[in-house]
Amino acid sequence: MVTRAAGKRTTGALTDDALVDRFLNYLAAEKGLAANTLTAYSRDLAVFLDHLEQRGVGRVTQTRAGDVTSFLELLQSRRLAARSRARFLACLRGFFSFLVREGILRETPTRDVSFPRLGQRLPRSLGREEIGQLLAERVDDPLVQRDLAMIELVYATGLRVSELVGLKVSQVNLEAGYLTVVGKGSKERAVPIGRYARDRLVAYLGETRTRILKGKLSPYLFVNRNGRPMTRQGFAMRLRLTAQRAEVDGKVSPHILRHAFATHLVERGADLRAVQMMLGHSDIATTQIYTHVAREHLRSVHKKYHPRG
User: Fold this and answer.
1) Is the confidence at residue 309, as pLDDT, over 70?
2) Which of 9, 87, 160, 200 is catalytic?
3) In this structure, are 97 and 132 located in the same domain?
4) In this structure, is residue 108 part of a structural domain?
5) Active site residue 26
6) Catalytic: 281?
7) Of 184, 189, 240, 297, catalytic
8) Which residues, including other chains, have CB under 8 Å from residue 284's CB and lie 6 or more apart?
9) Is 160 part of the annotated catalytic residue set?
10) Any catalytic annotation for residue 290?
11) CA–CA separation, 253 vs 259, rounded Å?
């Protein structure tokens, strides 16, 4: 939580710290944000309160748009990246919007403050041909078959690597063809599997997993040779080995697989809201980077097929 001298900054009967505490408790109880996210919000707000104090602003409720703008300018002068400054502003917007909802403020001072320009920073993606190369291996090795099932599942669902390795057998519904995933902030979502990934999982659960476990028991879907759950680092290493054997050029990581899932969906006309739900993004703005992918794909199609492209 924010640590400041008790009662140093007050807003009526409530200190600024108490308002921050109420906001963080709201995020924990109503929004279900994870502890590390709450810690980051607490830290960001503490930095902002220090800035207000240095500007002679007596109470957080006396904050004006100019105070927020000067704060962002200070962060820029400290060479914070645009993405980090945008995170600070998102935190302040959430905080002041909360104060408005609580009836403590009439309007938020962040209303007319714009986010820093982030540019288009899309991670490298894999083409459909490269995905085919990754999944083409035919080896009677249970560990390789497990790796291919994991790769197929990430490409089919867009799971985060932490969600993938944390999957339990009970979260897989092969008959209905979907997974129940617990993502960031302990939020649960259902994600369709798709025919190819379902077939891989049927084969993996029917024989491969049993061969790996060798009589041991585990609630986790994907296990290592010792019967323990796969780790993020373990899967990343196995994915790199698979890419090397398949002669796929460049770095291949779990996040690149997740990005390929979203990219290929958008290229083929998928609704952005549906992609947002499958990726587990809490804000559509995070998913909107893929509108750039869609525009580039349409431009390439136009250039290739239009008679005057």
Assistant:
1) no
2) 160
3) no
4) no
5) no
6) yes
7) 184
8) 272, 273, 276
9) yes
10) yes
11) 10
